[in-house]
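Much of the work behind modern protein science is quiet bookkeeping, done one molecule at a time. The protein below has been through that process, and both of its lines are reproduced in full.
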Amino acid sequence: MTVGGGRGQEGSALDVDRVLLDALFRGRLVELRERAEEAGLSKSGSVEVLRARLIQNQVLGDVDLSWDGIQSMSHKDIGGMLKLFGIKSSGSHKERRQRLWLHLTFDSRRLTVERLAEMERDELHELCQRLELPLTGNRTVLMGHVAGVLTSQANGWGRIKRSLWRSGLPEVFEVEVVDEDESEVIEAEQDDAVLDLEPEFEVPSPNAVLEDAGDALVHELDKAEPSVQGDLLTIQARVEDLERMIGTILRGHGGRWGSDEEALLIRLAERRGWPLERDEVRSRVIAVATNIAEIKGAEIGDGPKQRVDSMEALDRVRERMRFAETLISESNEE
């Protein structure tokens, strides 16, 4: 099964009613309720919930969009499905499956990181199962797993792209190049400065760096307040996103890392829904971010303490990498 809508792009062979799809993208709440009533579907929910329900039943009625059906879709097929629903279609296969299931199952205004604190462990366990997350751990750990996904998927599901309800279908199959919110913030911060595209900023950090960053975020976690524990676990689950944001900022700021770059990182993370209200959480994130920036080759500009912390992190990372090389060498000798 291949899905989509033409132009030879990903998922382009499924024949759908493009006129109906365009009408659903442009439809207002009252119009969508009328369509749902005529089709014998529930009229409850927000405009986006209604729109997703109508697309699922009227445009894609022959496609199995149950959880099992979503699991069976190929990477290419699920990308086409996401485009037909008018939401973000980039990401790994697992991220796409998560996003489609969330879009078809929940209202993004109601399933929030804050809402997770009100859920029982059984509810969180069910969410972890459907989102393909680890199922072991206490309630706080499970909440951290789910919160990490919701943070990562923020603004990617639950609402169609702005261009679709303004201009209709023609833009639905455009390829996503950059994250719109992040691009806007970076451009605003550049102040027409010349970009210095250092190659080390472009390359993802080794796993040893990410592992060290994750460990540093939750160091002596049991000594922190429960609310801080939940926040740090949420951010630990998104350490790869943290690393990417740091790289983006370094590219846009000529490889510099200081107080301005720290403030920009916090703003970007808050726009993505990260729990950064507490001072202890923010300070840990900034410290870990500085370490990552130093490892990436940034010019650290805010005092010696940051450099000392960063050198300690470098030593830990080097030790991890030496250990990994030892394991690889032993494996090759067997």
